[in-house]
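Subject: Interface between my chains keeps coming out wrong

I've been trying for a while to get a sensible model of this assembly. When I model each chain on its own everything looks fine, but I need the whole thing in one frame so I can look at the contacts. Pasting all components below, labels as-is. Any help appreciated, I'm running out of ideas.
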Amino acid sequence: MSLERLIGRLQAVNDLSPMERDQLLGLPIKLKQFADGEYILREGDTATHCGAVVSGYVFRQKIVGSRSQILALYVPGDIPDLHTLHLPRMDHDLCSVGPSTVAFIPHSDLHSLLTSSAPLTHVFWRDTLTDGAVFREWVAVLGTLSALSRIAHLFCELAFRLEVVGLLRNNSFEFPFTQQNMADACGLSVVHVNRMVQELRSRGLIEWKKGEVLLLNRGELETLAEFNADYLHIDDDTRRI
Amino acid sequence: MSLERLIGRLQAVNDLSPMERDQLLGLPIKLKQFADGEYILREGDTATHCGAVVSGYVFRQKIVGSRSQILALYVPGDIPDLHTLHLPRMDHDLCSVGPSTVAFIPHSDLHSLLTSSAPLTHVFWRDTLTDGAVFREWVAVLGTLSALSRIAHLFCELAFRLEVVGLLRNNSFEFPFTQQNMADACGLSVVHVNRMVQELRSRGLIEWKKGEVLLLNRGELETLAEFNADYLHIDDDTRRI
DNA sequence: CGAAGTTTTGACACGGATCAAGTGAGGTGG
DNA sequence: CCACCTCACTTGATCCGTGTCAAAACTTCG
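Reply #2:
Try treating it as a single job with all components included. I did that and got this:
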């Protein structure tokens, strides 16, 4: 099923009832494939659907002056545009990295589901809140960390989030991003990203070839990145409101 | 009334019914004063109330290694810890700048109000979403802008948000922050903030003395800051779900 | 096989950090 | 009411992390 990663991830922190799971599975979805670099939504668009990532990676991007800044990365199970349910006008772009599949759900169906289910409303609200927590963490990363630590942090966060949805195998994961993408995410130049990635390699912390990253020493990498997964709110007590 | 700024701000984008306004005004609140630098919540705390800022300024702060990063600023009418309704464990600090007054509402009362009112649920959900949009903007600011532009951006955003709640008079507003605070917000050193503030002064863009800032040329300041208020989602069509 | 994009390397420039010291203003106590 | 203390602001000198520019090596794909 297309939404199984989404449901698994929501269930990891939310204690969904079988009925709620069925309600989610009953949502009408339209699957769509995107090619590398293809836009899912652009700044200024008014969204009428929300899209759950089924496979591949997706990122949010904002153009500031002549530069582009990647605001956040999304993995299967995420709904990168869930916020459009209440703020339909996009203030940034949503873009695919590598090929991806997205399951679109009309706002109207989501609205009626949420109107009928207060618990699911809280589940989705909570989901947008952890999304916000990730942005806060990224503000802290860009405001305080060195280039090397920023890049390490990106790897740590991605590994952690992929692990939650079962896409991390032996600390290794698919990574279709270019060094230019990483530069845009970390607020650095490509040249410097390249040197820092080499530094991580030579310290024996990562391997990265052909779109696949392997974290060789996650503990040390997390120390270097000042990474603490609390902000992802995965281990908070599973709650039922 | 303590919540009037909050209600005014919510109303500016949400079209509250008289009943909903009364429901908000009926919430039990406990006013509390905070002194300069006093903590409202600390990282690790589990919140049991949400606090609406009644007067003064408040900021979120995260300690990363030996540095402190200010994540966001809040003005009267904001509820900086609204997210604790669903993520009660704080992953950062909440702190007063200058003296402030906060109106605390127990989570339990908010939960029962929201359970009984789907429209108000959406109003508050939406509010946390624009909060998230501000973090995204700040990611873009830190990732792409020069020191001078970052500082300009901070002034622009603050002026805009204060205007919404009627606290901007002739482009002038109270500003109890130190240059160290600005350095923590912009990811810069105090020394450099000082030089950049002087640069803004000498360009005739701002005046700043005794806790009061005056924007002399908002248009030019916004150009310099690449500031575009769309991300604050104030002018989106007023909506009723 | 050629073309285009990505990664890598080197040389150099610059924005902003750091260190250190001095100035000024508000607050307190004698 | 003045002397002092503290904290914020200011200034100058120097250093370093990262950006910029340019070109080469490698990869991928048509």
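Reply #3:
Confirming on my end. The first helix of chain A runs from residue 4 to 14.
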